[in-house]
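Annex B. Sample input.
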Amino acid sequence: MKNIKFVSALAATTLTLGVVFMAFMSRPSVIDSYKVIKVDGKITYVKSGVDLATGDNFKSSEKLAFDTDDSRAAVISKLKGRFVLTPSAKGGKAANLLPAMSNVSTRGGAMVNTMDLKKHFSDNYLLLDELELKINSDSYPMSNNNFFYLQYELNGEVIPKKLKHNGDILEFTAKDIFTVDGKQMPIPLKTNMSIYYRDNLNKVSKKISSFTLVVPNTENLKQELNVIISELKDNSKENFTKEITSYLYEFYGKPQAANVDYWLQKEMKL
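Annex B, continued. Sample output.
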């Protein structure tokens, strides 16, 4: 009788393990899913022929067609974080998911000398509506006769634009920069510019550097950042700011910490 009980117990145990194993095996396999933050260029769903757009959700198995080798997209996964979607070197409909930038540092403090200004105003320079920049007044005093100005081309015309200041604080405002002869012009996403320092008494202008001013459309940017915020597991303000700053650097240009903080408070209530 003891042997019979033992066999019955063993059979019951085997049956239970079998049920658990079958239940585990019957679970659907997890397929990576990503949400689109922003698309640069043109990327198309092969199956539908529809273009990839901000807010879209797609699976990692989705076949995509990239219009050019430069086409790319910022995407995010709740499980894995943020990535950059690029065309595969193999060609065809394959895509690469490259890890996105993280922990981008932004410099603060006054611009002390010409070298500081050259480094600051270089490459793609991001302006979120308006920002303030502290200038060393010993190196670059600012007054009615000493000031900074920008120069850029618009509709075939060279536009010199004097920058406002408040004491040793240099002010950048996108609307002011693109107001010409009292008329507010459409603000381009990217504009090639040069920045100069003017000594009006001696009639001398000193070129500091050339750079590309990047001014994102506010509503488009808010839509993109809302995608990032909705997908982040860590919803602390510190993590939001870190992820958003890194995204801005990778897809727009060099962000300034104070400018990002001010804009996020004003536009995103963060």
